[in-house]
Amino acid sequence: MKYAADCENSGNIDAYFDNEHSDYGENFASGIAIKLYGEEHSNERFAIERCKNTGNIKLEAKYIEKSLISGSAGIIVSATGKHEVDQCYNGGKIYNRGLSSIDIHDNYCGGIAGRADVTNCYNTAPIEVVVRNSDDTYAVGGIVGEGSAQNCYNIGSINVNALNGYDDISV
């Protein structure tokens, strides 16, 4: 198994993406790592352990008639397959603003992970999400936006502001 262990970020991350001239985009911001993808039946595994983020994470993304996936998190945006996120902490504010205008947009936002299965983690910082388009799908959580959390806790506030109504927001 490969590891990223005992990593720490205390710097603020401010990311702005304008995807007006692209057919498809992925926009991510995180304190430690962005994405880990693995095949479910693969033996390859990767673990993120004992990592800490105290820097603020800000993601603003503008989309014009595009299909898009984006996410923000304190530790990692997305870890799928047999990857592990364990014993991590986030103390930096997460701010995520999606400015899509027409097409479908999926967004995952969490204090530890946007989309992953995590264990033994905690978040103490606020999470703020601004949703503009009613076609957007948002998964927002103090620990994970989408996935599972075992032996974890969140004491940070979660605020979701839907500007034009919404179809699908889960908190």
What does this structure look like?
This protein is mainly β and about 170 residues long. About 0% of the residues lie in helices and about 60% in strands. It contains no helices and 22 strands. The chain has strands at about 1-5, 10, 15-20, 25-30, 35, 45-50, 50-55, 55-65, 65-75, 75-80, 85, 90, 95-100, 105-110, 115-120, 120-125, 125-130, 135-140, 145-150, 155, 160, 170. Strands 1, 5, 6, 10, 11, 15 and 19 form a seven-stranded parallel β-sheet that branches. Strands 2-7-12-16-20 form a five-stranded parallel β-sheet, with no helix packed on it. The radius of gyration is 15 Å and the shape is globular.
DSSP, total strands: 22
The coarse silhouette is globular
Strand content: over 45%
Distance between the termini: 32 Å
Largest sheet: 7 strands, parallel
User: Can you count the helices?
Assistant: 0
Order of helices and strands: EEEEEEEEEEEEEEEEEEEEEE
Radius of gyration: 15 Å
Low-confidence stretches: none
Proportion in helices:
under 10%
The secondary-structure class comes to: mainly beta
Determine the mean pLDDT.
81
